[in-house]
């Protein structure tokens, strides 16, 4: 028995050493950069904090707590058109689902990552709610990738709770479980049940600003003491857990500040170019100032959460900034590559695209809506055409398909200043076309109406 215990201990120790060595060779920042475009300072902050924890340079009495703050992009040079009624198409999707290896699907237009549930088409008011909720910048993705890195692919290692489900006082019971004699006592709490299974999980509290103050009180106890007592009176020790809260409370201010900083950086670069200085760096990198954090962000957080001790328990506040043009291009490229991989795997079709296509897709995207709208833009302007062409049997198996900007529209690209945002009514922009490449010549595809989706152009 004793030797068995010793063997197990030795095995665990060796495994731990192997993992440390693996992380040294492949740091978290590297993994995050593979999945997240831009957000350099967020990646650096999270990477450094996890490294401190992993190497024993942290306060082991308390769990690590992050607050991820998003930026909506309202206001600033691109802040027009936020009021009134707009015609929109909204595709409501659920969590990404993994597609089993090697499983073939019948239609190229069906995204495996985001199964569509509902398509709503209609008039909705474009109010700040929409803007803040569509300003996706990678907060959830960063939390997910951190969990994947720390727990490999163990599902239990990532706990995600939508805090908008805990807005009422009575919903505290859902969080930690009801006391004996109350409805749902047997079920246990959503958080406590999962934490019990994996006390060192990465726990994501999405939209924490929506939670009822009583829920925040429980969270404070959790952050402060590193343990939690559930409805059954059982205490769960979770000092080793990592808690990540996300919020969009100060998103307008962060976006405005970031846009201003970016403009200043651009002007500075231009000036230096004009003065022919040697050390000119056209940089998109900006840093949120300490003064802005203290004078603008902290008062907003304080007014919202009302408790200094709650804010005091946050180890790092992490800022997610609006994307700059070059990051948008990378997002478009990532999305097109995703579909190119699918086209190859499912139909042996090689998908290529011109550089101008990326500009068109990045420009057509409204800066305010975040990364998710790039996905929608690619689906609307490219994948719709692929599906229609496939349905009309225009795509021979094994062909090479090129996405290109319609010749007659190319001049639009040349005349357009890319720093000027498109106004409503101007949004259609250049048309994207599909061509088959044969013997180094290209043949345009004649996709029949009403399935030519380029014609169905409304602002997202
Ligand atoms: N910086 C980024 N780099 C690459 N992809 C991104 C980035 N931000 C978002 N995405 C893509 O958009 C999807 C949605 O992003 P995510 O859920 O992380 O956004 P979020 O910031 O949590 O937004 P929300 O405030 O709406 O919750 C991700 O699955 C990811 O594919
Ligand atoms: Mg999110």
Walk me through the structure.
The chain contains 15 helices and 13 strands. It is α/β, with parallel strands linked by helices and 460 residues long. It folds into 2 domains: 12-84 and 126-322, P-loop containing nucleotide triphosphate hydrolases (Rossmann fold, 3-Layer(aba) Sandwich); 324-455, Orthogonal Bundle (Helicase, Ruva Protein, domain 3). The strands form 4 sheets. A 5-stranded parallel beta sheet has the order 4-5-8-1-9, sandwiched between helices. It has a 4-stranded mixed beta sheet with strand order 10-11-12-13. Strands 2-3 form a two-stranded antiparallel ribbon. Helix 2 (28-35) packs antiparallel against helix 3 (40-54), helix 2 crosses helix 5 (139-151) and helix 12 packs across helix 13 (355-364). Residues 73-134 have low confidence and may be disordered. Magnesium ion binds next to helix 5.
Q: What's the number of structural domains?
A: 2
- Rg, alpha carbons: 25 Å
What summary fits the major beta sheet?
5 strands, parallel
CATH topology of the largest domain: Rossmann fold
Mean pLDDT: 79
Region (Disordered): 414-433
Protein name: Clp ATPase C-terminal domain-containing protein
Domain Clp ATPase C-terminal: 323-412
Keywords: ATP-binding, Nucleotide-binding
Indicate the topology.
Blueprint: H1 2-25, H2 28-35, H3 40-54, E1 64-69, E2 85-93, E3 116-125, H4 128-134, H5 139-151, E4 158-162, H6 172-176, H7 190-197, E5 202-206, H8 213-225, E6 227-229, E7 235-237, E8 242-247, H9 251-274, H10 290-305, H11 308-312, E9 316-319, H12 325-347, E10 350-353, H13 355-364, H14 371-391, E11 400-405, H15 410-415, E12 432-438, E13 441-444
Parallel strand pairs: 1-8, 1-9, 4-5, 5-8, 10-11
Antiparallel strand pairs: 2-3, 6-7, 11-12, 12-13
Helix pairs in contact: 2-3, 2-5, 12-13, 12-14
